[in-house]
Each structure stands twice: as structure tokens, then as C-alpha cells.
Fold this protein.
Amino acid sequence: MEKRNQAAKLIIGAVVVIIAVLFLAGVVSRHEIKYKSTPLSRDDIAYRQVEAPAATSADGTITASDWKAIYPDIVVSWGKNAENEEVVDYLDLDPYLKGDEGIYEGYGFAKDYGSARGHNYTLTDVAKTKRPHGMANCLTCKTPNFTKLVNDEGVSAYSRPFDEVYAQITENGGETVSCYTCHANNPGNGTQPKDNLTVTHSYITKALGDQIGTIDPGILACGQCHIEYYFNPETKETTMPHSSVEAMTPEATYDYFTEIGFSDWTQESTGAKMLKVQHPEMETVLLGKHAGMLNCADCHMPVEQNPTTQNIYHSHKLVSPLEDKSLLANCLICHKELGAKTIDDMIAFVKNIQSRITAEETRVGNLLLDFKHALAAANRSGTWEEEKLDEIRELYRKAQWFFDFCYVENSEGAHNSELATRCLNTAEELINQGMALLNAE
Ligand code: HEC
Ligand code: HEC
Ligand code: HEC
Ligand code: HEC
């Protein structure tokens, strides 16, 4: 009995010592590492179930100012998107795009194409663009009040006159991209993004169907607009050209448009039926190296703490990760093992990729312009068989598509440099094939 008691005491003692050692070596030191080098994360946020405030808007969307008493920090940070107001004129920066001489000849972007800026400017910018906007479908990605209109009225809302719907929305105090866009009328109800975010843009749910559950809600929220789309030629409704992640490649999307006989415009000088790519950020991210690991919020919405109230929340000011120290510190959690030792290394790593892609883009863009001039000359000459010209027009249309897929994507290769490079290489090959045909005659 004595002996057994002693043995038990020894075992208990040993277990206590082992636990203490584990605690000191593992848990304590891990906690210290977390505190010293890990910024705040979504795990630090105290999610809570709240009662929705009454909607003050005419259409029943609960506005940012309605939410202000409940989520003051989030609403204030959301308002700060206005600080991102600078616009770069891409037509001045890259003259090969511009006017009747450039590769966008005959399309609105040849006349007016500036860089994107903060979400607060969507309604101002869509009204003043020199690009044509006859129908309300141009409001798809600008305001939750149009989203609500489509959800209430159905797809006929897309073909209503732009001016009429724009006036109706702005006169009723309509908002730019706001809470309803990504949360419907119930933000914050759940600890996981899937409980907290709602896809309100119906063309996404329509296109993806069952597949929607396979995509991170923190990617879908942004992908509602940062995506390639087209207007259905008959119904004018906003439509996605793909219904699964596998079909989001530029190759598959091109084949889809060609199969349905779709083109955005016919270019006069070349006679080619052209396509314009929009802003395929969701595609490049889902097909990129971070897919399945990070969502858009992880890289563009830092978790912050209010120094007075200590409240921890996702900042809703959408920033470049290169301009935010806590986001950059997050990158290092993985990138330390991939060669970046410091925040400065991380910035340099991304900027290197971007400058390589930008230089290639300029080179291939100018080759595309040469191809366009040569094709236009052949088209003008009247000496070419239409069939041969069509063969070359197809190469030109396709080269422009692949070039554009890289050019209009807003990260300059940071989201997916392999895909950007593949697009530019494909464009260059097609240009070479076309030029060889033109020079052979
Ligand atoms: C463009 C999309 C978008 C808009 C607009 C938006 N949110 Fe969010 N919101 C997100 C994302 C993404 C998250 C992070 C989801 C997660 O990880 O749980 C989030 C998280 C939240 C959370 C959970 C708590 C937290 O800090 O993560 C609340 C509450 C919230 N948003 C409220 C709002 C309010 C209020 C507005 C309007 C002022 C708003 N959101 C506008 C995308 C959006
Ligand atoms: C309702 C459509 C919509 C949704 C949803 C949306 N965006 Fe945007 N976003 C836009 C539009 C439109 C612009 C360009 C605004 C302008 O220039 O007037 C823009 C601009 C931006 C910019 C500025 C680009 C630049 O070059 O400065 C960033 C960054 C951005 N969005 C990130 C996000 C992220 C991250 C999410 C998800 C949390 C998101 N957006 C969700 C429509 C949307
Ligand atoms: C692994 C991190 C990461 C993820 C995930 C990510 N981005 Fe980015 N994003 C970047 C970086 C880096 C840049 C380049 C920023 C710069 O040039 O300053 C960028 C640039 C952008 C830009 C151009 C705006 C600007 O400030 O230059 C937009 C718009 C954008 N991302 C949207 C998205 C959307 C939408 C998603 C999700 C579908 C997403 N990003 C996911 C890292 C990320
Ligand atoms: C969860 C881990 C993880 C985090 C966090 C992370 N990355 Fe990455 N990142 C990776 C991996 C893995 C690769 C692929 C490395 C490779 O294949 O060489 C990668 C590659 C990249 C690339 C090259 C992509 C390409 O297509 O060439 C860029 C740029 C990048 N990361 C930027 C960022 C930025 C900016 C952040 C922070 C905002 C970040 N990453 C955060 C894991 C991560």
C-alpha cells in the first residue's frame, strides 16, 4: 500500500514536471512570440450577435450611418476609403492604349481610362466618365441601392435608363459600396466569415450554384465586383462568363465568349470583333499561390484596435498591404521561410514582381499596337482575301484579350505573377503568328 502510494506520487510528480517543462518551453514561449511579432488577427475580435437598427433608407437597406451607434469603429474606418482619392490617367501613362491610334480604338476606354480609387467615389466617377453608360446595368458595382433594386424588381432593372435610376438612387440619399453590399442587413452575426458575409449580387449565386460553398466568403464578398463579367446581349443583365473556379482561367473564359459569339465591339480600322476584359482580381487570386490560405480581407483589411475603448475590429478602409505595417507583419508569418526577413524585404519582393510585369506589359502592349497598325493597313489595302484577314483578325482579337487580362488586373502581377506572365507570353506568341502571316504575303 505504502509503496503503491509512493509510486503514484512519483508518477504524479513526474507528470507535473513534464507539464511544467512543456508549459515553459512551448506554451509560454509561443505566447511570447505571438505577442512580439504577430499582429492582431481575426481570432482577437469579439464577435457579437446584435439587433439590427431600423433602416432609414427609402428601399430598406440599412445604411452605414444607421449602423454607426453599434459599430462606430467599423463605420469610421469605412468612411476613410475617401482618403484613397488619387487617379492615375492610364491613357497618358500608356499612350499605346489611347484614341483612334491606340489598341482600344472604337471603345470607350480609348477616350477615358483612369485608375480605380476608393469606394466612396463610385457614384461620382460613374456619372462623370466619358465612357457611354446608357443603361442602369453600369450601376451594378457602384451602389447597394441598385443591388437592392435588382433583388426586389428582378433583372428588368438592368435595362432601365441609367439617368432615371441614377437620379432615383442619388435623390434618395443612395450610398456607394456599403454595409448592405457585403453583409445584406445583418453584419457581424457570427464568428466565421461564412456566417458574417452575404452575397447580395444575384448573378454570382446564379452562376456558381452549388460551387459557391467551395469559395471562401471573404473572397466572394469582394469578387462580387472585382471579377470578369459581361452584359447579356438580350436581357442586358450582368452575367458571369464562368461557373466554377476551373473555368476562371483566361483560356476557358476566352473559349466561352467565342462559343457564344460574344464581342464587346467591332473595331473599324482592323474589322476585328474585340473583347474587353474588366478587372479579374477574384480569378487571379483563386488561381494563385494563396488560394485556400488567405482571403481578400487578410491582405486588404487590417485588424485594428481602438486605443480608447480597446475594441478590436476589421478595418473597412481597403488598403494596399504594402502600405500597412500590421498586414506586412502578417505576410512575414509565412514569407520568413520564403526568403523575406524584414518588412522592407517583403515590400521589395512584391515590387520586384510588379516592375517585371509592368515592363513586360509595356513591351507587349507596343508589339500589339504594331500588329494592329499592320492589320489595319492590310484591311485598308483591299488586296487581301476576307478569309485570310479573318484568320489574322482572330489572332489579333485573342492577343488583345490575353494582353488585357494582365493589363486591367489591378495588382500588377502581385496576386498571380505566373498567370500574368502566361497571359503576356500567349499574347506575344499570337502577335508573332499574326505578323508572320501578314509578312508572308
Ligand atoms: C466590400 C465588402 C464589405 C463592406 C462594404 C462592408 N463589410 Fe463588413 N466585413 C467585410 C469582410 C470581408 C469582413 C471580414 C469577415 C470575417 O473575417 O469575418 C467584415 C467584417 C465585419 C464585421 C465583423 C466584425 C469584424 O470586425 O470583423 C462587422 C460587424 C462588419 N463587417 C460590419 C460592417 C458595417 C457596419 C459595414 C458598413 C459600414 C460593413 N461591414 C461594410 C466586408 C465588408
Ligand atoms: C459593389 C462592388 C464592389 C465590391 C463588393 C468591392 N469593390 Fe473594390 N472597387 C469597386 C469599384 C467600382 C472601385 C473603383 C472606384 C472608383 O474608382 O470610383 C473599387 C476600388 C477598389 C480599390 C481601390 C483600387 C485602387 O487602385 O486604388 C481597392 C483596393 C478595392 N476596391 C478593394 C476591394 C476589396 C478588398 C473588396 C472586398 C472587401 C472590394 N473591393 C469589394 C467595387 C467594389
Ligand atoms: C496575399 C495577399 C493578397 C490577397 C489574398 C489579395 N490581395 Fe489584392 N493585392 C495584394 C498586393 C500585394 C497588391 C499590390 C498593392 C500595391 O501595388 O500597392 C494588391 C493589389 C490589389 C488591388 C489594386 C489596388 C491597389 O491599392 O493597388 C486590388 C483592387 C486588389 N488587390 C483586390 C483584391 C481582391 C478583390 C482580392 C480577393 C479576391 C485580393 N485583392 C486578394 C495582395 C493581396
Ligand atoms: C499563409 C502563408 C502566407 C501568407 C500569410 C502570405 N503568403 Fe505570400 N505566399 C505564400 C506562399 C506559399 C507563396 C508561394 C511561394 C512559391 O511558390 O515560391 C506565396 C507567394 C507570394 C507572392 C508571389 C506570387 C506570385 O504569383 O508570384 C507574393 C507577391 C506574395 N506571396 C505576397 C504576399 C503578401 C503581400 C502577403 C501579406 C499581405 C503574403 N504574401 C502573405 C504564403 C503566404
In short: The longest strand covers residues 303-305. The domain at 64-292+341-440 is CATH 1.10.1130.10 (Flavocytochrome C3; Chain A, domain 2).
